[in-house]
Design brief:
heterodimer, A: 417 residues, alpha/beta, Rossmann fold, 5-stranded mixed beta barrel, 5-stranded parallel sheet, 14 strands, 47% helix, 21% strand, rod-shaped, B: 70 residues, mainly alpha
């Protein structure tokens, strides 16, 4: 080898590592900002300094493409955590959280590993990242029309059989159960134990949801947990859980946070309640509402049937009255008619006889005037020869005997010319 | 509702129908008493089931959900 010169400087390992450290420090004399996702953090429980890994993932494949060992010295821990807490991001750093940190690049010569030493943290970045991933999930759910899908399910009027998903004996579980107990109403709780924080949230909640969906023996599913910090709750900003809820047959009710928290799980649920106790109250109120409704139905039925009987009675009385009135009127009308008829009849009789009398008089007058005796009385006379009435001189011959009738007798004469 | 009995929904609808009939006077007076009695029964039935004043908790064993029956 050309460069093989025994006189040339040969580093010991420590010398080399120390010099690399100098080069590093020379290249990065100032503190630098680095962003990445926390990993391997959980091993640090109860240790003096904190060692973990910051990593970068391929955003499409969820695959680690680079990582760097990271340290927070004991003297900085409290200050950094406090800043994190003040942003409502939780009491601890933990795996899966994206952070932007101010750090010094360093190398510890005995090990030769370079790492970064965190001096400060930017909580705004983590908040932004949480919001971003949350927003992406919401967009996805909206595009698939899943945001309101569970809201279109039907919550029975009396949701008595409740599928409860929570962590056994957690604050949320206890609050929910004790609130139901206080109501003194009957409830049957089918309890499915599931993690409500940490990495198991997704798989265990989904498992529990699947269970209740398949069994189809609950009126509603309730997911409860005590309030938590924003990163704690971010476990519920979860796409898989949201999708599962959307396709659930029974309505899903959430009580997983406190007043200001609102996760994607809440967003897709049938009903979002702020706390476990309020979720319990929601069910109790629904049932009390039903009790109130049947109560007022009962009052209304009683009232209306009373009215109906009263009305029927009134109708009967009214009908009786009408019958009386109508029959009286009928009789009255009859009497009147009879009187009228009689009057008419009398009038007609009178008229009839009067007319008849008149007619008879007329006839008798006419008969009188046509009696020949009346004409004779006026001076006219009737002459007969041999019983035959003489109407012309041709009827008479000289020498014939003629009898002439006058008003008071007969004159006998002989025709002489 | 898992129990084979009239559901609250059905009970509620029947009560409403009874009220409607009475309101509209679609009921013979001699059948009215029977209707009112039926309404009372339905209400008692619902209230009895709701106001049992107890809480049953059944824990679902995760490892063998198939064995868990009702």
């Amino acid at each position: 080898m050309e460069t093989n010169n025994p006189q040339q400087k040969t580093y010991t390992i420590l010398e080399l590592n120390t010099e690399i450290k100098q080069v590093l420090w020379g290249s990065f004399p100032e503190l630098i900002w680095v962003r990445g996702e926390i990993s391997d953090f959980d091993k640090n429980k109860n240790k003096k300094h904190i060692y973990f890994v910051l990593q970068e993932k391929n955003p499409d494949k969820d695959q680690i493409i680079s990582q760097i060992p990271t340290t927070i010295f004991n003297s900085d821990i409290n200050r950094i955590l406090k800043k994190f807490q003040e942003a409502n991001l939780g009491n601890e750093l933990k795996d899966g959280i994206e952070v932007r940190v101010l750090c010094k690049l360093d190398l510890w010569p005995p090990h030769g590993h370079y790492n970064i030493i965190i001096k400060d943290i930017d909580p705004e970045y983590t908040l932004g990242k949480l919001a971003q991933s949350r927003e992406a999930i919401i967009q996805y759910l909206r595009s698939k029309n899943l945001l309101d899908k569970n809201k279109r399910t039907f919550l029975p009027l009396v949701p008595q059989i409740v599928g409860l998903i929570s962590q056994l004996d957690s604050e949320g579980y206890t609050d929910f159960i004790s609130e139901l107990k206080k109501s003194r109403l009957y409830f049957k709780i089918r309890f499915y134990n599931a993690s409500v924080q940490g990495e198991k949230v997704e798989s265990e909640i989904c498992e529990a949801l699947d269970y209740f969906n398949q069994q189809q023996n609950v009126d509603a599913v309730v997911i409860v947990r005590g309030g938590g910090s924003k990163t704690d709750l971010s476990w519920f900003d979860n796409k898989k859980i949201a999708e599962k809820i959307a396709f659930m047959q029974p309505p899903v009710i959430t009580g997983i946070g406190h007043k200001t928290d609102f996760t994607i799980t809440d967003m897709v649920a049938f009903s979002f309640q702020q706390t476990p106790s309020i979720a319990a109250t929601f069910l109790i109120e629904r049932i009390n509402d039903f009790l109130g409704r049947i109560d007022s139905l009962s009052v209304e039925i009683a009232h209306n049937s009373q009215n109906l009987t009263k009305l029927e009675l009134q109708n009967l009385i009214e009908i009786k009255k009408q019958i009386n009135r109508e029959s009286n009127l009928f009789l009255e009308r009859d009497k009147e008619e009879l009187k009228e008829n009689r009057k008419n009849l009398l009038f007609y009789y009178k008229e009839f006889f009067k007319n008849i009398r008149e007619a008879i008089k007329q006839y008798s007058l006419r008969i009188d005037s046509s009696d020949p005796i009346n004409i004779i009385r006026l001076g006219f006379s009737v002459s007969k020869i041999s019983g035959k009435t003489i109407k012309s001189i041709k009827d008479a011959r000289i020498g014939q005997n003629m009898i002439t009738t006058v008003s008071d007798g007969e004159i006998k004469s002989i025709i002489n010319r | 509702m898992s129990e084979k009995q009239i559901s609250y929904n059905e009970a509620y609808e029947e009560l409403q129908a009874i009220l409607e009939d009475i309101k509209e006077r679609n009921v013979d007076v001699d059948k009215l008493a029977a209707k009112v009695k039926r309404a009372r029964e339905l209400i008692n039935l619902c209230e009895e089931r709701i106001k049992k004043a107890e809480l049953e908790i059944e824990e679902i064993v995760k490892s063998s959900p198939e064995e868990e029956k009702k």
